[in-house]
Amino acid sequence: METKNEAYPKVSIIVPVKNGAAKIKDLLDSLMRVDYDKDKLEIIVVDGNSTDTTKEIVSKYPVKLVIEEKAGVNVARNTGIRNSSGEIIAFTDHDCVVPENWVKAIVSNFQDHQVGCVGGKILRYNNDFLSCYADESLVPVMRIFENRTVISRIKSPLCYPVGCNFAVRREAIEKAGFFDERFTYGFDELEFAERICMEGYKIVLTPDVMVQHKHRSTLSELLKQTFRYGQGGGLLPKTKGIKSIFSKWVLLSIIGFALWFLTLLYLAFCLLFAGSMEFLVTFLAFLFTPLVVLIVIYSYRTFKMGDSHYKRILAYPLIDIARFVAFVAGGINCLLKPRSKR
Predict the structure, then answer these.
(1) Are strands 202-213 and 115-124 parallel, antiparallel or unpaired?
(2) CATH ID of 5-215, from 2.40.110.10, 3.90.550.10, 1.20.1310.10, 3.40.630.30
(3) pTM metric for this prediction
(4) Which of 200, 199, 183 lies closest to 191 in space, CA to CA?
């Protein structure tokens, strides 16, 4: 939906960063090319006291640089909000690149005053193997919305706005409150989005608002990222109880994995002491069923798309399983830690 130039609201873009010297230049260059009235646009980079050359790079651009001593992405977002003046506040990350129409696409989705939050599509910036996996997995690393959806409540673990492509109406922040600073990484924006809905606002999830993200380039980095997502997920039931749909989803994931693992241990114990072929077959079936199911699914998708990259048929399922284990491990790690005081 187009709006007249004079009707464009002021937009504040907030970029939290720490030690992002290797990637932030591409983002800042893309923000300089954004097609929006410059008098109604402010860019605020909140630096978490970087020890590399991030601050020096940012200082070369016509943006506001704010230094935040406290750690945590939500601390940085809140600092950015307090230093902003826009009616619409957009968030992206230092490892993203935005298209020229990004801000206009965001603003067009706020024409309905019942919309308090807009979340967009996040696609890979590079085309290496792991970046392709991140977009093509059954559970993409970032959210990829194929159709515009308007929701009044978050119901699915795949349907919520992600912090690197996320915008909110200032009025909604004033009613729902700031980001919860106990969430330093992983699901940090989810609890906030749920509160936006609780205040009666709608959330738009749309492919029209798109950014490109520089996904993790090594498996160890990807699994570390997933472990930290699990830690953030584990914090949800500790801080919000089970009223959050994601608290329930995280707990079910952990319980499901625990039951599968304990069943494997029981079968291994029976096999060790009974030594029967029946227990061996059952043990192997239970161990490899998740992998086999994923291989079948990826095989179907690969042949249906006419894709010649057949190594994905085995690699993608293995990475999926590794990510799930890392996520559960992160969740358990957080749940077992003593609850910290605010």
Answers:
(1) parallel
(2) 3.90.550.10
(3) 0.89
(4) 183
